[in-house]
Amino acid sequence: MAAVARCLRPFASRALSQQLPLAGVRRVSPAAGFPRGSIRSFSQSPLSQLKKYTESHEWIDLADNGTAKIGITEYAAHSLGDVVYVELPSADLEVAAGEPVGAVESVKSASDVLSPVSGTVLQGNAALEDKAKLINESPEGDAWIAEIKVNDPAELDALLDEAAYKESISGEDH
After folding, report:
1. Which of 31, 76, 107, 132 could form a disulfide with 57 if both were Cys (CB 3.0 to 4.6 A apart)?
2. Which part of the chain is the Lipoyl-binding domain (predicted)?
């Protein structure tokens, strides 16, 4: 049987590679052949990497495990100018929503970084101790200020999504 398959394989490949008229062919979704629920989805859960913003220009990025990273937005980093010092929180600090979790000082001014939600600080971003300018280079990426264990993920519902935040800053001057 294997010998027959080997002999037919070249002919089958040529026949399948030829252009055939598709008028009578019914297109079927690849999922149609699978029983419902057996298709593997690669999307993330709604809480996975949920990023929200505050009107005071902080962002929070919630992970599946209930921890979140907090930082300042690109708009805030641009407004501050060249950052020269970042005050990081100490581990185990309890913060409530709206309380300072750190501070950013630039050549223009200094500004507190407020926690968007309540929780316990797990760590500050040690990379900012040696290179405060990272805030200007990657404010919403590598330059997060603090990682916290979020007390109540439902607090994120009161924050702005990306579209609402961008709309809120569209009227402000750079």
Report:
1. 76
2. 67-149
